[in-house]
Amino acid sequence: MNTKTADRLATGVFYVIALIIISILVGLFYYILVNGLKYISFDFLTSPSSNVRAGGGIRDQLFNSLYVLFITMLIAIPLGLGGGIYMAEYAKPGKVTDIIRSCIEVLASLPSIVIGMFGLLMFVNLTGWGYTILGGALALTVFNLPVIVRVSEDAIRSVPRELKEASLGLGITHWHTIKKVIVPSAFPTILTGIILASGRVFGEAAALLFTAGLSTPRLDYANWNPFSATSPLNIFRPAETLAVHIWSVNTQGLIPDVEEVSSGSAAVLVLSVLIFNLLARWIGSLIHRKITASK
After folding, report:
1. Of 74, 104, 65, which is closest to residue 204 (Cα–Cα)?
2. Interatomic CA distance for residues 59 and 66, integer angstroms
3. Mind listing the pLDDT tens digit for each residue in 22-52?
4. Rg (CA), the chain
5. Cα dihedral sign, 12-13-16-18
6. What is the pTM for the complete model shown?
7. Which residue, of 53, 103, 151, 285, is most buried by count of CB atoms within 10 Å of its CB?
């Protein structure tokens, strides 16, 4: 086989692989959206769920998913970015650094159900909090922290060393070089890692089953006191997320319209992830242009 034939064959194989991936993605989205969009309505999105009667909505579950995502990323992003900066810029090659990197890789490979059991032990039983939003957010932080650390480290290492050397050569300190030169240059890649981690948080169910719970108390959305038991902002209350609700309805649901609620909830979950990803990329591009002074 000559070089040109091998090149055409390799190109064709890669095109076929790309086509298979796109076909699977389109087919999955088509199936979920076609079966679920017809059940989505304003009443479905703004009504509380029901365990026994038909016609329940997903208001509380949708809010819980967004709130858990917000709390999780509020904790995970600073820790993950800080860990990535340390591993890329401050950690010296040696056994300690190798051990840290091995721990990160092992943590990233743990199944979500194991993280859920760990969260049940640490953030539910040991702390005495019970099923809470905070416990679920901390468990998901453990789940996503290795991803953000590794992506941040790789993004920072991919920044051309000439930029760092030029900044240091002008007399700028190491920290200000990281803050003003390296991190802004690596920001698009870091943002991609954060978006991937956020998508995992929004669609996670196994870890939240054991930490955030399978129920939601009656919420008063006019009550903004985060210490009130009926406030949606209370982080020490149980919170059934949308992904957990889909699992619960399909396995334990007693309502007559199980299929409608399940299909509608799945469509809302997929659309929410898509909208979140698009908004995150748009906001990220605005931030990148602002911190790099590019047009």
Report:
1. 65
2. 11
3. 999 899 888 988 888 888 888 888 888 877 7
4. 23
5. negative
6. 0.87
7. 151
